[in-house]
Specification:
It contains 9 helices and 22 strands. The protein is of the alpha/beta class.
Length: 378
């Protein structure tokens, strides 16, 4: 198949051309015109399909349900719905749970992947239990605990060749002392943390190069007592998740962040819960009562944000319209940086020969106009 008459978006350039692909991978990328065309892009921007690298679920499903093997139908529905948002890849993200449940999810991962025919799931993001009680958010404080090396070795034995991201609060219960034993088996992320400047930098030097939903469940920037936020702004080797629903992080702060860090360090994420796509109401999520009110979830009866529900393509649209950034920067924040963060940019999230044949077409206002998943227009 060939998509012609497209503006092909790369990391450092945009060219007018066409792309040839099959149902698995990109075959050729060419500049100019072709008489052989299966789909006329009509001058729209062609980018890799989006990568939502921090999502708990949506449309009535979340990944903590995978403690048993009874939710494959729900999972497939969720995957089909996020494809409509332009998402071609995700990291399935679980919230703090018991070791028994972590082991069950790990054992079910192979079954999960067998049903993931479009290879949307690229790995497992373990967000908790090794986080800070002080910055727990919607996580159950009774289940939060320090790093357990024996447990992590067990997970790695179950899934030795699976990409795994581990969320850690470095300051909690001597977690920092255990980084060197796990950073070769897990990609380390820092967040849900009250770390100070020094503790944060120690974590970064030990390999924790990902920041969990920047600003959310973290202390504020401080002019006299530097925090993890101050440390983040001093570095250029981090990839920072950013929720762009315009409520988790105000538009003005999204713009500040882009101006300070630049597109090379930002990954737009949804952090969506199972309530995304559902009507407003009260839901039981992870044993916690959640109020879905419009685009946000709150802990029941409070104004404490528990998660978001804005579709991913709308968050990318928000980011573009707030920052007025280039399409090459949109490529970075929507797919390439997330793929780079787990060293997979040759396989997805990038327009290179041999990468997955999943694409989005955007207009000049960053709006999603068409999606192709593994060579098929959806």
């Amino acid at each position: 198949m060939i998509i012609s008459n497209a503006k092909l978006v790369f990391e450092n350039k945009i060219i007018d051309g066409y792309i040839e692909f099959n149902d698995e991978k990109i075959v050729e990328i060419k500049e100019g015109q072709t008489s052989k065309s299966s789909y006329d892009a009509k001058g729209l921007y062609l980018l890799p399909a989006f990568v939502d690298s921090h999502t708990h679920g949506g449309y009535g499903f979340d990944f903590n349900m995978l403690i048993n093997n009874q939710h494959n139908k729900d999972m497939l529905h969720y995957l089909s719905q996020i494809n409509k948002e332009g998402i071609g890849s995700i990291l399935l993200t679980t919230i703090t749970c018991s070791d028994k449940d972590l082991n069950a999810i790990a054992r079910n991962y192979k079954n999960i992947k067998q049903n993931d025919v479009n290879n949307v799931i690229k790995g497992w993001y373990i967000e908790g239990p090794y986080i800070s009680i002080t910055k727990k958010g919607a996580h159950d404080p009774k289940l939060i605990r320090p790093i357990n090396l024996k447990q992590l070795n067990h997970l790695n034995k179950i899934l030795p060749n699976t990409t795994k991201i581990l969320a850690v609060a470095p300051e909690f219960k001597n977690n920092l002392s255990k980084y060197k034993f796990i950073n070769k088996k897990f990609f380390l992320a820092t967040g849900h943390s009250n770390a100070n400047f020094s503790e944060a930098n120690q974590a970064f030097e030990l390999g924790a190069k990902r920041i969990i939903h920047l600003y959310n469940a973290l202390p504020n920037f401080d002019k006299r007592c530097p925090t993890i936020i101050n440390a983040i702004f001093n570095r250029q080797d981090l990839k920072c998740e950013l929720i762009c629903d315009k409520v988790h992080v105000a538009p003005e702060v999204i713009l500040n962040t882009y101006n300070i860090l630049g597109a090379n360090q930002i990954m737009v994420i949804s952090d969506s819960l199972s309530t995304k796509g559902l009507k407003d109401g009260v839901f039981n999520v992870w044993g916690i009562r959640i109020d879905k009110r419009g685009s946000l979830d709150y802990l029941h009866g409070t104004n404490c944000i528990a998660g978001g529900n804005v579709p991913y393509h709308k968050q990318i649209e928000n980011f573009g319209q707030i920052t007025k950034c280039s399409m090459s920067d949109i490529l970075k924040v929507s797919s390439l940086n997330a793929a780079k963060s787990i060293k997979q940019e040759k396989h997805f999230g990038n327009l290179v020969k041999g990468a997955e044949s999943s694409f989005v077409l955007l207009d000049k206002d960053y709006r999603l106009r068409a999606t192709f998943i593994h060579g098929r227009k959806i």
